[in-house]
Amino acid sequence: MTDSLHIVGGGMAGSEAAWQAAEMGVDVVIHEMRPKVGTFAHQTGNLAEMVCSNSFRSDDDEQNAVGLLHWEMRAAGGLIMSSADAHRLPAGGALAVDRDPFAETVTNRLRNHPRISVTEEEVTDLPKDGQWIFATGPLTSPALGEAIRHQTGADSLAFFDAIAPIVYADTIDMRRAWLQSRYDKGETEEERTAYINCPMDRDQYEAFIDALLAADKTEFHEGETATYFDGCLPIEVMAERGRETLRHGPMKPVGLTNPHQPDVKPYAVVQLRRDNALGTLYNIVGFQTKMKYGAQTSVFRMIPGLEEAGFARLGGIHRNTFINSPTLLDSQMRLRSRPNIRFAGQITGVEGYVESAAMGLLAGRFAAAEMLGRDIAEVPHDSAMGALIHHITGGADAKTFQPMNVNFGLFRPVDGLKGGRRGRKDRYKAYTDRAKAAWNDWLSHS
Ligand SMILES: Cc1cc2nc3c(=O)[nH]c(=O)nc-3n(C[C@H](O)[C@H](O)[C@H](O)COP(=O)(O)OP(=O)(O)OC[C@H]3O[C@@H](n4cnc5c(N)ncnc54)[C@H](O)[C@@H]3O)c2cc1C
């Protein structure tokens, strides 16, 4: 039992973790509850089943952060990427996948690996001995969820996400917006200017409410029932409750003075709060939403100061089990309170097939290195892998932690390059060149 690495959950993350660890020479047992115990979204007993869309998103490794993550996983001999490439469907610049043959390939390669065995069972507690990776995903079984909650504390495990849109700071028009905390609260200048404020006059507010009410919304998936908590109501539901609700809620204009027009009292104010330590990302406070992505972009660009906004991620509310990684995990994804246990995949607070597989890849390598008594260097911050893992295990604000996709806002700026939309192409190329060099260097030493 103690000589093998145990991986709970054979989804995107667990499958990749198992492959990486086994390729490094460690025996692996995958514990997967399907098909004996199902979820509302999975349809088969295959490992690495894609539960919804069949897209791994952009495959552009020079201009897109998720494409860069593909590149890094390929360079690391990733099973998920090689299986996706083997079953690629025509989809322009995106990597779309023929889902059943893809999952069958992953399943067969894992089951046929001499160092890997698969047991079909639900794991319902966190063992005290042995090396374990929990990669049970957004639909972690309720019994295990309860065990995790018991170990981590009730406030550290969420069952739904409530994601407000996140904007690239350098796409906010500061000729219209300004920095100020409500009532200038805070001990330091940094705290007193912690928010970016976007003012609206009455006409702009009324037009914004009309657009919210008219926007296309997504429904919860069948079986994905949700009771909204008053603290995280979707913004459009708040608007449905009354046209003034938002003006008395997240858009209240009190305690704020617009330095561009000090004599004009804004009718409503949209606030954005810093979302990462680098200060490159801001989330729109209280704007979690079920609006469709296309609708979100056009509605949120009606906000003065956000006309040209670039979105690192759009808002959403989903059934999603995830832990507060910034407080619970160390930089190698070990649970601080139980270091024999690692977490990987979507349960760590990343989102998407690719990001989940990427965190599985790292967890598998970390666990195997530890079991083999090998040192493993810190994942370089400048790689896409590094940007993501450092965000979830430290860079993100623990108090407002919500799941994150990989995006260039997580990367350290490259000195000497133009900001804003104009410099974007050169900037992204510089990020991806730097990332590839850093990742190759890390791979060659681990
Ligand atoms: C309804 C829905 C739709 C989604 N649509 C998309 C999409 O279109 N695109 C996208 O990129 N992402 C989507 N996601 C997110 C997607 O699920 C993840 O990105 C990805 O599958 C996460 O990988 P993972 O390995 O962390 O979890 P999963 O792939 O879900 O794998 C977790 C595995 O753990 C198993 N498991 C759970 N509990 C236990 C237990 N106690 N014991 C043993 N095994 C257990 C599960 O059966 C599952 O096989 C969606 C999620 C949901 C819920």
From TrEMBL:
Co-factor requirement: FAD
Residues bound to FAD: G9, G10, G11, M12, A13, G14
Cellular localization per UniProt: Cytoplasm
Principal place of residence: cytoplasm
Source superkingdom: Bacteria
Keywords of the record: Cytoplasm, FAD, Flavoprotein, Methyltransferase, NAD, NADP, Transferase, tRNA processing
Catalytic class of the enzyme: transferase
Catalytic activity reported: uridine(54) in tRNA + (6R)-5,10-methylene-5,6,7,8-tetrahydrofolate + NADH + H(+) = 5-methyluridine(54) in tRNA + (6S)-5,6,7,8-tetrahydrofolate + NAD(+); uridine(54) in tRNA + (6R)-5,10-methylene-5,6,7,8-tetrahydrofolate + NADPH + H(+) = 5-methyluridine(54) in tRNA + (6S)-5,6,7,8-tetrahydrofolate + NADP(+)
InterPro entries xrefs: FAD/NAD-bd_sf, MnmG-rel, MnmG-rel_CS, MnmG_N, TrmFO
E.C. no: 2.1.1.74
Domain (MnmG N-terminal): residue spans on this chain: 5-374
UniProt similarity note: Belongs to the MnmG family. TrmFO subfamily.
Function: NAD-binding protein involved in the addition of a carboxymethylaminomethyl (cmnm) group at the wobble position (U34) of certain tRNAs, forming tRNA-cmnm(5)s(2)U34. Catalyzes the folate-dependent formation of 5-methyl-uridine at position 54 (M-5-U54) in all tRNAs.
NCBIfam families the UniProt entry points to: gid_trmFO, PRK05335.1
Record's protein name: Methylenetetrahydrofolate--tRNA-(uracil-5-)-methyltransferase TrmFO
Organism: Ruegeria aquimaris
